[in-house]
Structures are given as structure tokens and as C-alpha cells.
Amino acid sequence: MAEMTAAQVKSKRMVYLALSVVSLLFLGLIYAFSMFAAPMCQVFGYEKAAVGLTFNIMMITFCVGAVLGSQIEKKLGVKGTLIVGAAMYAIGFIGNGAMGGNDVMFVYLFYGVIAGLGVGVGYNTVLATTNVWFPDKVGFSSGVLMMGFGLGSLIFGTLATNLYKGGMDLHVIFMAIGVIGGIVIAISGLILQRPPANIVALMCPEKAAASGNTGYDPADDDAALKTPMFYVYWVWAIIVIAVGLATIGNCASDAQAVGWDEGFATLLVGLVSVCNGLARVVIGMIFDKTNVKVTMLIDGLVSVVATVCIIGGFMLGQPVLYVVGAFCCGFCYGGVPVVASAFSRSRFGAKNYPLNLSLANFAIVFASLLNLLIQNVTAGAPRYVVFGVLFVLTIIAVLDVIPFSKMFDKGVAELEERRKAHAAKAA
């Protein structure tokens, strides 16, 4: 893209931000699974446990798709990558609507694998493209984008389930989601562009000056997987995500188990999505005002409160306590992708941001596996036992922030020295 003025950047990037949020609303339907699970069991005739596995498959393929998207973009650019993601998204949902009732394996294939890959490709490309337009407000842009992703299940998931309850055929609903969502994502691919090369100089002149105004940032040379701090970050992210997955995937059934009726249980899924979405904006603002260390600590503490409240809700028979815990779960889960996005961009630079973002989000794979392991180990035990295990892990997550902070401070200090050395050499 040709060089632009700061005013032109501010105008164009807000248009891109709005377009990206709309795309992410559709991509965020990945989290509407708990709303779709019961209708699929009723219409397709499958057992709850068999259908429930789809969510974990989708979480894993979502992360794989994000990594693939970062590599596809190097070959096809933003436009080509989003068209690929749109096609997979459409095929996944349309295929699930057309074939899902024949065998549960088709649900795994279309909804779990193909749609999951498409969401991952689209999600990573949209975020990695739009966030780079906001080097001065990386937490804000990440938060707004993540809000769109988090609210997708509330807005379109609720609409889809209401249409089903109103008599619309579930097969048609899935196919409509695939067609409309695929078109919206493809349109975003035709419009979104990478920012001009001088974006940092325009929006963060002090940062550009620190690097000698050459457009080069030493952070671009740091590979996430070769940085020990990144793995310490992963420990925190995996645990907090696991807490969220344990709630999101079973929210409706757990709410009924503690005493809520089916109507409120369904509503609660949407309300948790609201907390998920709001958390992404709040956490983004906290990140911009403080730093990644404070943000991780706050989000980790919320995950501790979440597990305590849910345990109390089950053991004491207090439905309201469960709702508070579910809200906190939605909040802490919503904060992780914002931290991942902002942390990857601010610490490892813009050059390899798509790859680093996908690697940061790959924690979801390990969190899904951890969640499955806990579910299997505690099979047959009361639900509060699951959250008892997660409570212990959340304490570890909070304590993990201590070594992360020390490593982060050391890394940032070394990075600043490299920037000063580069600036001096450029002068």
C-alpha cells in the first residue's frame, strides 16, 4: 500500500476495524456449539457425548487452521487467504447441514474439521491484518476484534436456535449459516489490506525514533518458539482457557443441573458470551493502560474466582453462585485471546505477527486436550470435582505470572538495548 498520512490511516483503519468485527461475528459461531448440540441430538438422533466431542475437535482444528492461515497468507496474501477460509467455512456448515444427519462422523468432518479449519484461517488473517493498523492501540483493537468474535455466538447463535424453535429445519439453518457467513468473510477478503510500510512512524513516532526511523524493529528477529518466556506464557494460557472450555462446552446442561430451567439455561449461554465479549474490550483497555504482566494476573485471579463460585454452586446447591462463576469463566476466557494478540504484536513485532499470533493461540489445542483429560479422569464423579481440579490449576496459573514477569522484564530490557544500538548505528 502507498504511503499515507496519519489522518488517512485513522480513517481507513476504523473502516477495516468495523468490517473485521462483522466478519468475526460469523467466525465466532464456533462458540455457539453448546446452543447447537441439543438440536443436533434431537434432529440427527445422536447421543450427547458423541456430539459433544465435536467441540473439542473444532477447537483443535481452529488452532491448526490459524497456523495454516499464517503460511497461506505468505503465498496468497490477505485476499486469497480469506477466500480460502470463507470457502472452508461455507463447506463446513453446508456439509454439516446436508450430511450431518447421516452419521456422526460427518458432523466431526464438516463441523469439527472443515469449519474449524476455516474459522482458524479466517480468524487469524483478520486479526493479523487489522491489528497491524493499530500499533499505537494494540490492546484496544485486539479487544474490539475479540469482542466481535466472542459475541458471534450470542447474536447469530441465539438467532439460529430461535429459528429452529420456531419451526425452521435445522439442516437449512446450518446451510444458511455457511452461505451467508462464507459470503461475508469473502467480502472482507476483497476489502481488507495490509497497512503502509510507514504505519509505525505515523502512529508511534517515538517508537520509530527509538529504532532510528528505519522502519526496522529488532523485535521482528525474535522467534516466539525460541523464547523460553513464550512457553511460560503458554502454561498460564492453557490453564485459563481450560477453565473457559469446561464451562462454555457444558454451560446449558450444568445450569440445569444446579436448578435452572431450560429456558434460563439457554439464555445463560448467551449471557456468558456477553461476558466473553465485554472481557475482550476491558482486558484490551487494561493492557493498553498497564502491561501484559498486570493483565495476565488480573485474568488469572478471575479464573480462580470462577472455579470457586462454580464449585460452591454445585456443592451448596446455589444456582446464583453458579451463574456468577459462569460469568467469571466467560470473562477470564475472553481475556486470553486479547492478551495473546496484544502480547504477540508488542513483544515479537509486526513482521511475523500472523505466525506468532497463531502460535500463541495454539494454547487452545493443549487446553482442549487438558480439558478432555480432566473429563476422563473424573468420569462418573460429580461435576464439582472437575472444577476442583481446575481450581488447583488456576492457582498454578496465577503463580506462573511471577516467573513470566521476570523473564518478560529481562526480555524487554534487552530489546530496548538492541533498539538503542540499532538507532545509534543508523544515525
Textual characterization of the structure:
The chain is an all-alpha fold and 427 residues long. It has 16 helices and no strands. The chain is globular, with a radius of gyration of 21 Å.
Sheet with most strands: none
Number of strands: 0
Q: Please trace the helix and strand order, writing H or E for each element.
A: HHHHHHHHHHHHHHHH
How large a portion of the residues is in β-strands, by DSSP E?
Answer: under 5%
- Based on the structure, what is the oligomeric state of the protein chains? single chain
Could you say which structural class the secondary elements and strand pairing correspond to?
A: mainly alpha
Euclidean distance between termini CA atoms: 27 Å
**What integer is the average pLDDT?**
88
Shape: globular
Describe the structure using short key phrases.
single chain; 427 residues; mainly alpha; 83% helix
Summarize the structure.
The protein has 427 residues and is mainly α. It is 83% helix and 0% strand.
Break the fold down into its secondary structure elements and pairings.
Elements (H helix, E strand, L loop, with lengths): L5 H22 L5 H12 L3 H52 L4 H27 L7 H28 L4 H22 L7 H5 L1 H6 L17 H21 L2 H7 L4 H28 L2 H25 L2 H30 L4 H9 L1 H15 L5 H44 L1
Helix pairs in contact: 1-4, 1-5, 1-6, 2-3, 2-5, 3-4, 3-6, 3-14, 3-15, 4-14, 5-11, 5-13, 9-12, 9-13, 9-15, 9-16, 10-11, 11-13, 12-13, 12-16, 13-14
